[in-house]
Design goal:
With about 350 residues, the protein is an alpha/beta fold. The protein contains eleven helices and 14 strands. It is globular and about 60 Å long.
Length: about 350
């Protein structure tokens, strides 16, 4: 069985160089749409700034045997936006990219009608959660489908086995969400950059209300602040411990989420998953023995990169981060592809 590709986010040429060096098989990015209305653009720090920089990234990636993919996940809702999107797509394709991630059926149809001959990957925003949905998307001419996150590994395996004519990719690391993708309007409820900076104290990546940290108060006998956490449940999820099971399903790709997160996070997450996938591949060839399993879990325990950690109040009244990735994610059961996402913050914060 072949090993899945690791797809990692980038937001600059310099970042792309580092992420590729860390072991990405593919990189993906958004590109700023010049002069576009706000709806068609992510915040500046989530995007490649120019088509010229995109071309530099694609050329460098190709020199290292890595593919460059551009994401077009935001919809357009009027004719003048459609014209902008056509120009944007053509400009990206002209820079030598390898595929497009698309989250809108209308966009898929438009790209096919443009006759660009470029592979289309269906975004998780199309909410494919079963064989029938994936088969419908395949019939639109899509080469790869990125599954919705609220699935078990058994369900992923069934989709992979029944859909032999389309590649299947899943998220493995990044911000999670209790909502089904494309069924939540908070995605477009963005504050102004100034207001956002005030709320998140300069932490990049918290671009929607569900990713903001909120102060939590205990009321009754007086009122006191007891925690600071993203209570709308867009907390980080990972699948480090479940990686061997995911790979056994035969899926094509492993996607790291984080276009709006710092480059250090993008690089560290890529390096960790590269090392683990390589370890699992060696284990498949030689047998995943007890020594290798111990090394696997030591590597998992060593991974501490965290885009945002909740703060808890200590008995003495001081504040501190709730703990390392292992302390929080493993204790709280914050795993992708558990039977259901478990409720976070089970521990007492008082």
């Amino acid at each position: 069985m072949g090993m899945p590709k690791i797809l990692s986010p980038v937001t600059s040429f310099e970042g792309a160089v580092e992420v590729i060096s860390a072991g990405a098989d593919e990189i993906y990015c958004a590109v700023k749409v010049p002069g576009a209305v706000h709806l068609l653009n992510r915040p500046e720090f989530c995007c490649i700034s120019t088509y010229h920089e995109l071309g530099r990234i694609a050329n460098y990636a190709h020199s290292k045997g890595v593919e460059t993919i551009v994401t077009l996940e935001l919809p357009f809702m009027s004719e003048f936006m459609g014209k902008q999107m056509k120009e944007h797509i053509s400009s990206c394709v002209n820079e030598g990219i390898d595929a497009l991630i698309v989250g809108d059926i209308g966009l898929i149809t438009m790209i096919k009608d443009m006759g660009l001959g470029i592979p289309i990957y269906a975004s998780t925003l199309l909410v494919a959660m079963n064989y029938e949905a994936v088969d419908f998307i395949r019939k639109l001419g899509v080469k790869r489908v990125i599954l919705e996150r609220h699935m078990s590994i058994e369900e992923i395996g069934e989709v992979v086995q029944r859909n032999k004519d389309v590649e299947i990719e899943v998220f493995i690391h990044g911000q999670g969400c209790s909502n089904i993708n494309a069924n939540c309007h908070l995605e477009f409820a963005r504050a102004s950059p100034v207001a956002m900076q005030k709320v998140v104290s300069g932490i990049k990546g918290m671009i929607t209300p569900c990713r903001w940290p909120f102060d939590i108060y205990e009321v009754g006998n007086g009122e006191r602040r007891i925690a600071r956490a993203p209570i709308l449940d867009a907390f980080t999820f990972c699948s480090l411990c479940r990686l061997p099971e995911l790979i056994e399903t035969g899926l094509t790709g492993l996607k790291i989420v984080g276009r709006c997160l710092p480059p250090t996070y993008q690089v560290k997450a890529t390096k960790m998953y590269r090392d683990l996938v390589d370890l699992i591949e060696r284990g498949q060839r030689r047998g995943f023995n007890r020594v290798q399993r111990k090394r696997f879990y030591r590597m998992v325990e060593s991974f501490e990169e965290q885009p945002f950690q909740p703060e808890l109040q200590n008995p003495d009244g001081s504040w501190s981060a709730a703990g390392s990735l292992r302390d929080i994610l493993c204790t709280e059961g914050r795993c992708y592809y558990s039977p259901f996402f478990r409720a976070p913050y089970k521990r007492s914060v008082s």
